[in-house]
Amino acid sequence: GQNIDQPTEMTATEGAIVQINCTYQTSGFNGLFWYQQHAGEAPTFLSYNVLDGLEEKGRFSSFLSRSKGYSYLLLKELQMKDSASYLCAVNQNQGGKLIFGQGTELSVKP
Amino acid sequence: ETGVTQTPRHLVMGMTNKKSLKCEQHLGHNAMYWYKQSAKKPLELMFVYSLEERVENNSVPSRFSPECPNSSHLFLHLHTLQPEDSALYLCASSQGQLPSETQYFGPGTRLLVL
User: Fold this and answer.
1) Could you tell me if B44 and B33 are in contact, meaning their C-beta atoms sit under 8 angstroms apart?
2) What is the Cα–Cα distance from B9 to A110, expressed in whole angstroms?
3) Which residues of A touch B108 (CB under 8 A)?
C-alpha cells in the first residue's frame, strides 16, 4: 500500500537549523513536493524534487534519495514566522494525484 | 493570496441540510481538485477535474457531489452528511496534470456537521 511518514511535531530555536524528514513507500514515483501550511491558511508550495540530490532555495533546501524512499526539508536561520505545518507529498503517477503525509508541526521558540 | 478563493470560509450544517462549497481560481489553470483535511490526518484527495472533465473520483461517498461548470469554477454539493464529515475542505488548481506541476491551494472551508 501507500505510506508516507513524517514526524508529527518538532521544536526548534530561532536562528537555528532544522531538518524535517519524510519517508515514503508508494506504488509509483513521479516527484516529491513540500508544502508549508500556517494555521487556518492554504498550503503553499515550497519545493519539488524528482531527481536525487539537494535543491536549494534561499533559507530552504530539499533533498531526495529515490533508492531510499527518503526526503528531507532543511530550514536554516529559523524565524518565528516559520512556525507552521510542513507537508510532504508524493506524485505517484503521470497525473496530478498527490499522496500526502500527515504533516510535521514545527514550533520555533525564541 | 494564492489566486484560489473559496466560499464560505466556515459552514455549520445539520445532517439533513443541503449546502454547496464554491471554489474559484484566477490563474488560468486547467485542472482543479477537492481535498479533505481532517485533524491529525493526511490531506485526502477527493476529486480531480481536468478541462472540466472528472478524471479522478477517489472512492468518495455519493453524499459528496462535485460540479465543474467551467475551468475557473468548482463546486462541492453536500447532502445528508455525517458528523465524521466535519473537516477542512480544500480546493486546489494546477496549470495541467503533469507530475511536476505545482498545485495552488485555496484557504479552505471549515465544515462542521451537527
Assistant:
1) no
2) 32
3) 42
Alpha carbon B51 to chain centroid, angstroms: 16
Characterize the bridge pairing of strands A9-13 and A104-109.
parallel
Question: Are the C-beta atoms of B109 and B11 separated by less than 8 Å?
Answer: yes
Q: Is the CB of B103 less than 8 angstroms away from the CB of A95? A: no
Residue B53: count of CB within 10 angstroms of its CB: 8
pLDDT in tens, B6-64: 999 999 999 888 999 999 999 999 999 999 999 888 999 999 998 878 877 778 999 99
Whether B48 has its CB under 8 Å from any CB of chain A: the answer is: yes
Return d(Cα B56, Cα B48) in angstroms, integer: 5
Three cell numbers written together for B49 = 477535474
